[in-house]
Amino acid sequence: MQRMPFLFFLSYCGDDGRGGLVREFYEDLRDEIRRRTTEPEEQIGFEYGGMREGTLWRSTVADGLGTCRVFVPLYSPRYFGTRFCGQEWGIFAERQRLHEQQRGSAPELIVPVLWEDVFANGPGRIPKIAEDIWTRSDGLGGSYPTLGLRKLVQLRTRYRDEYQDVVDRLAGVIISAAEQYELPSPAAPIDFDTAPDVFRPDDCAGVAQIPLQRPGELTGGGPRHVHLVVAAPTAAEAAQERTNVDCYGKRSEDWMPYLPAATKPVVRYAMAVADEQDLTPHPIGVSDGLSELLEEAESEGELVVLLVDAWATRMPAYADALRPYDDRLYGNCAVLLPWNLADEESEEHAPALMTAVVSLFKKNARIPHPTFRGGLHSVEEFTQALREVLIRTQSFVFEQHPVPELVNAGAFVARPLLEGPGAA
């Protein structure tokens, strides 16, 4: 079934989306447009982070690009070095070309946002197809042209008025453009595998390539790794505490708390969410080395998420292994406690289990700490909670390790082709 068209499609690099700043801007822009129009909220904007786990992303993104009325790219050095972003731009630009061919006029439906100042060192720093679109406005002065919108979002308390001016101006331009033109949709399904990257000379002749940084050279950048630590007993260990051990296996990582509704280990769902947020997941069972892992992850700017079975907190070996977590409040770490209401044995022992959890995690469970989440009764609740705590922990790491300005990015390098929307 054909999806209804979105008013605008937000195109950005996955690296720029880390930390939640892009999502904050998208929600503010969407809300401003909603206030000014009668568009249904679900049809105002498309942003990758809003896709649910299990979504067929290729067809979903393709439908968004094939039907959206306005294309909003976030200009940054990383954006123009990302193949997927170049393909998105090319797909939308082809719809513009078809409109011009059919009606004789060139529609101006690409509304760029200066996420970072890519013009600081003069012309030729970005592909010509993007350089040819005017990005300056008399109504958007102040710090926006020099700092870029990322800084205004990050420091929105200081730049509140300037930030709101940018959002207001962009909302007006998007609404006006959408009302002025109506683009044709592609006659055939969009195939990302064959779509050209208009930012690369080898895909599209005559397009300039910009200087880029190698993915591993971002000193002080955002987190790229998340350690998924499963604190659950094996089936043999669980049998010492409880009767029903169907949800356990030979290893801690085999724990399937949402049986019978969901038949995969919970760490598999967690890995999918990590991948969705462009993080490399590292699933492991909890051990006596948790303290060292927490310290190392904090110093390296990496994330740690503990997936805790309440039954494990009553077992001395697991309780001892988990205890170092509560010694301090880690901003880059989180705890999630799945709880299946269909598990009759857990429901029967709920008071004792909760007492054990609170006793073990005194600081985090009683504050309550925003990245300590319990009562997750389904896979859907679990994955949504994980998305939220990953955004919070990434934001914390960004504050501790600010992303450097990448105006002068260095030598020309080839970028690896990664799958997925906004992948770098």
UniProtKB/TrEMBL annotation:
InterPro entries from the UniProt entry? FxsC_C, FxsC_N, TIR_dom, Toll_tir_struct_dom_sf
The record's annotation in Pfam families points to: TIR_2
**Domain TIR residues, every copy:** 4-137
Question: In which domain of life is the source organism classified?
Answer: Bacteria
- Record's protein name: TIR domain-containing protein
**What organism does the UniProt record list as the source?**
Micromonospora solifontis
